[in-house]
Amino acid sequence: MMLLQAFIFLLAGFAAKISALMTNETSDRPLVHFTPNKGWMNDPNGLWYDAKEGKWHLYFQYNPNDTVWGLPLFWGHATSNDLTHWQDEPVAIAPKRNDSGAYSGSMVIDHNNTSGFFNDTVDPRQRCVAIWTYNTPESEEQYISYSLDGGYTFTEYQKNPVLAANSTQFRDPKVFWYEPSQKWIMTAAKSQDYKIEIYSSDDLKSWKLESAFANEGFLGYQYECPGLIEVPTEQDPSKSHWVMFISINPGAPAGGSFNQYFVGSFNGTHFEAFDNQSRVVDFGKDYYALQTFFNTDPTYGSALGIAWASNWEYSAFVPTNPWRSSMSLVRKFSLNTEYQANPETELINLKAEPILNISNAGPWLHFASNSTLTKANSFSVDLSNSTGTLEFELVYAVNTTQSVSKSVFQTYLFGLKV
Fold first, then answer.
1. Pairing relation of β-strands 101-109 and 128-135?
2. Domains held by the chain: number
3. Which of 39, 68, 86, 153 suits 323 as a labelling partner, its CA being 20 to 30 A distant?
4. Which CDD domains does its entry note (predicted)?
5. Contact, 13 vs 39, CB < 8 A?
6. Closest by alpha carbon to 145, among 98, 204, 228, 201?
7. Are residues 154 and 8 in the same domain?
8. How many CB atoms lie within 10 A of CB 379?
9. pLDDT value at 103 more than 70
């Protein structure tokens, strides 16, 4: 007869206590997804990493006066030391009129002071310039504002706008530095023309139209929140391709809003997709307006992003109070290359890995010796106010004082009662 000692080892990969701020106000508030203390939130904006302070910055579309979208619209602000726990900060950018909005945009670090906004008292790692859309009933124009205190307060450029198109549908500038040409590159949406325009600049103030990426993929009602970023391949991180992200709303295959992407090449002026296939960033309905960080802590990877964890189809009706909407977890992006039977065919897909920095609670050990495992052999663990991945491990130790003549394979069923 084979005698077994049974060890049930329960390892819970979650934090027993995340943050009092996130749990005290309402039981509906997520434990790790960022939510504003109060008011309405949508698109993430201006993502960047302060390498001097080791701090991550998240800005977002914010209406502090209500739990639904409405004007005036501001740039809210939050900071984090680990990309998981976020601290609300005061409003960063405000519109000039009550019938207007500081719409979506991005942040750059002007290390070399190409804009001329900074002197030597501002650390090059903190020379923040925000590029954003100023929306009024008459037009949408691209503005810039700069910060002298590391991204907490901003001064508006006196000669705004830096880019205008005599349109009410021209928005969401995403800017990055293109090293080969030593120029700033902007993507901006001509939303209802289904066009992503690509501009270049030497100083963030004067912009030249270089090309457009238009009428590709799912069109829906409009293009929004474009982004262009170089993403490393998973198989060989020294190699990379360029990815164009485009949001559409409405018109998602599952309804409402969603993000699509295209993989291709970029030469400093033109983005060319390898094929005309639209790929879906996330098949869930709550992932919109994805934006990537301008820069990162290299230990996390070079391509990180956050999306709005909601959908315009129902975002105004989510039953939370005194706040509405949350952000996705930060995701690390890479490109996965799969070779098919035809060696000339290469499928390249985006891989997204969530970043979740939380402390493990447990482990809890349940021990039973020389006994039959039945429903009576049960135990409980309090998982309240906890979030994360729950892992179960069942370990058998054979009592070697007895002869073992054969191995017995058995299926064990576990029930989790909530």
1. antiparallel
2. 2
3. 153
4. GH32_Inu-like
5. no
6. 204
7. no
8. 11
9. yes
Same domain, 383 and 347: no
Q: Is the separation of the CB atoms in 25 and 273 below 8 Å?
A: no
Q: For this structure, is 43 an active site residue?
A: yes
> Tokens for 203?
């100083």
Q: Is 26 inside any structural domain?
A: no
Q: Locate 97 and state its tokens.
A: 């009129």
Q: pTM for the whole thing? A: 0.85
Whether residue 159 contacts residue 138, with contact meaning beta carbons closer than 8 Å, is answered with no
pLDDT tens across 168-222, in order? 999 999 999 999 999 999 999 999 999 999 999 999 999 999 999 999 999 999 9
Catalytic residue chosen out of the listed positions 43, 50, 110, 172 = 43
Does 6 share its domain with 137? no
Domain boundary among 303, 320, 354: 354
d(CA 133, CA 61) in angstroms, rounded, equals: 11
3-class secondary-structure state, position 40: strand
| Same domain, residue pair 97 and 155 | yes
Q: Which residue has tokens 């064990």?
A: 412
